């Protein structure tokens, strides 16, 4: 029997909504779902100003579909891992901000997908793990870089060696998620954030998505030099000029206490 649509796609008010849609498999990422995700990310980059990635059913994503891995050779696993890296790079290094709306299981490859996004909103039901170690395998979707950069290599080592599962409160505290919200509200909050992001000046978004991550890998002097270059480019763009004029003329909203 043919599998239903693996990924849903909707464009609403300049925000693309990408929904993993294998609820019976806990949205485990199969080869076919990875290809569908790649195509949807490319499409979103061409027609939206922000995207929200979420999961249908009981969880965000339970990781790699291990049922497809039983007969792969070492070379096949290597190239599959590189494909995951390429797809997730389209998210993390793409043209538009990606916001992950997380609930339920966000484990293994699902955590790697979430880590590829720029903002992560976790509801109270979300839990996080890297169970690859307990299954005799190693992460292959980028966690050695993306997750380790978020929480540090020591915490990632703990998760992989011991199978430790983190609840949403702990995940928000250590940086796996930037927002912790009541159960069932992650898509709503992610949508509100995406709508706000979609109104930002394109050059500002470009600097944040493309320059900021690279600056982290530079020396202090080189990072500050690139920062100055980006400030010069962005601040003299037409959108920035208009927004700064609105602020000086008291037509823009001021920053206030939360």
Quick overview of this protein structure:
The chain is built from 10 helices and 9 strands. The protein has 258 residues and is of the alpha/beta class. Helix 1 runs parallel beside helix 2 (74-92) and helix 8 runs antiparallel to helix 9 (220-235).
The CATH topology of the largest domain = 2-enoyl-CoA Hydratase, Chain A, domain 1
Label the structural class: alpha/beta
Beta-strand share of residues: 15-25%
Straight-line distance between termini: 52 Å
Gyration radius, in Å: 19 Å
Q: Profile the largest sheet.
A: 6 strands, mixed
- Which geometry do the CA atoms define? globular
Given this structure, which CATH class of the largest domain is correct?
Alpha Beta
Helical amount among residues, as a percent range?
Answer: 40-55%
List segments where confidence is low: pLDDT < 50 over at least 5 consecutive residues: none
Q: How would you describe this protein?
A:
- The protein is an alpha/beta fold.
- It contains 10 helices and 9 strands.
- The strands form 2 sheets. It has a 6-stranded mixed β-sheet with strand order 1-2-3-4-6-9, with helices on both faces.
- The chain has helices at 31-47, 74-92, 109-116, 146-151, 153-162, 168-174, 186-197, 202-215, 220-235, 238-248; strands spanning 7-12, 15-20, 50-55, 98-102, 105-107, 119-123, 127-129, 166-167, 179-181.
- Helix 1 (31-47) packs parallel to helix 2 and helix 8 (202-215) runs antiparallel to helix 9.
């Amino acid at each position: 029997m043919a599998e239903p649509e693996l990924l849903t796609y909707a464009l609403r008010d300049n925000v693309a909504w990408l929904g993993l849609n294998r609820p019976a498999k806990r949205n485990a990422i199969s080869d076919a779902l990875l290809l569908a995700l790649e195509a949807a990310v490319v499409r979103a980059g061409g027609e939206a100003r922000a995207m929200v990635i979420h999961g249908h059913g009981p969880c965000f994503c339970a990781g790699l579909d291990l049922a497809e891995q039983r007969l792969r050779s070492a070379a096949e696993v290597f190239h599959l891992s590189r494909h995951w890296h390429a797809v997730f790079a389209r998210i993390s290094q793409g043209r538009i901000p990606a916001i992950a709306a997380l609930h339920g299981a966000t484990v293994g490859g699902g955590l790697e997908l979430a880590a590829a996004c720029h903002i992560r909103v976790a509801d109270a039901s979300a839990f996080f793990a890297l169970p690859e170690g307990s299954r005799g395998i190693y992460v292959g979707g980028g966690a050695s870089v993306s997750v380790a950069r978020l929480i540090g290599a020591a915490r990632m080592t703990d998760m992989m060696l011991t199978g430790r599962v983190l609840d949403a409160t702990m995940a928000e505290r250590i940086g796996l998620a930037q927002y912790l919200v009541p159960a069932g509200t992650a898509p709503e909050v992610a949508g509100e954030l995406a709508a706000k992001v979609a109104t930002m000046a394109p050059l500002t978004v470009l600097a944040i998505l493309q320059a900021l991550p690279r600056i982290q890998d530079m020396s202090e002097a080189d990072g500050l030099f690139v920062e100055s270059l980006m400030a010069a480019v962005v601040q003299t763009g037409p959108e920035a000029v208009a927004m700064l004029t609105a602020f000086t003329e008291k037509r823009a909203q001021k920053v206030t206490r939360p």
